[in-house]
Amino acid sequence: MTRDSSNKLRLRRRLLVSAAAFLGQRAALARVTSHESRATPFAKATPGRILRFPDDEGSHPAFRVEWWYVTGLLDGQAGRLGFQITFFRTRPDRTTANPSAFSPNHVLIAHAALSDPREGRLLHQQSVARAGFGLAEALEGRTAVWIDGWRMEQRENLYRVSLPFDGFGFELELTPTQPPLLNGDHGYSRKGPHENAASYYYSLPQLDVRGTVRRTGGTVAVTGRAWLDHEWTSSYLDERAQGWDWIGINLADGGALMAFRMRTRDQSTLWAGATLRSADGAVRVFQPGEVQFAPLRHWQSPRTATRYPIAWQVRLGDTPYTVEPLMDDQEQDARSTTGTVYWEGAVRLLEDGRATGAGYLELTGYRRPLKL
What we know:
The protein is mainly β. Helices cover 9% and strands 52% of the residues. It has one domain (55-363): AttH-like fold, CATH 2.40.370. It has one helix and 23 strands. Strands 1, 2, 3, 4, 5, 6, 7, 8, 9, 10, 11, 12 and 13 form a 13-stranded antiparallel sheet that branches. Strands 14, 15, 16, 17, 18, 19, 20, 21, 22 and 23 form a ten-stranded antiparallel sheet that branches. The N and C termini lie far apart (58 Å).
């Protein structure tokens, strides 16, 4: 056989393989389309539902989007570090009854970051995968979510969080020291004037943290305090909302403070809420009119030119709090996974100039309106 004949044969084989792949995709699409009439509607967050533990710590696949969000401050030989790891589970809009294991009925996304003032900017990683085949899952009934080596698992009385090394990584054990903090109306958290913008939302503040952080220079033992948020919803943002500002603070006296506001395009407050657990365990839920966010200082990203208000006065009722960042540059670029750029970083809380707590601040929708 001549070289030209051999090349023609290889080309013919490639064309046949491509044609077969195309016909296979068309057939799969036809199967999906045939199931669309049986597509499962998204569940809705409604008032009156009682959250149950540990069952509600697992996945809620009937809802459009869900996340497990852990933030905290760590101390070790490397000094004070902030860390964050978040797992998202989402159902695409066109979820169907297609029985194929390859049907993307759920997608998992993970973000992780390390705030180190000595670095001067945020270190972050991200990952995304279609749920299935044991490689990426979010289980029901207990917290167990993972994408390959990224893992967060509930085991007896603690959580284990693992982040594989890629510039940084960590292995941490988080032990609850307090019961879940139910935000909003016993865990039903309104996000706007209309009831259709709402989530189920609880927090686990004051988690005791022990483990290791691995950096290029080696591995160090760390201890600290963390905060876990778990939310699930099918309609989170009011159509007028551009994004939100949120804080989760572990108070030095053992209390806990969560506060947020949803913003419109002109940066005014559309809705707000807060939950405060005092050191004696008493819980107060603040209504929208009792929560005010006022920016004190801005920082502009040298990479995206986005301008963020990174220092705040947050007033709950008659009490003002000041929020200051551990460092200015804590911007996270997640355009390759969630399509968003946002600021999320370690902060400290001040009352009358005294440091009374530490936690995290999240700022979304400043580069462009946020879409979930």
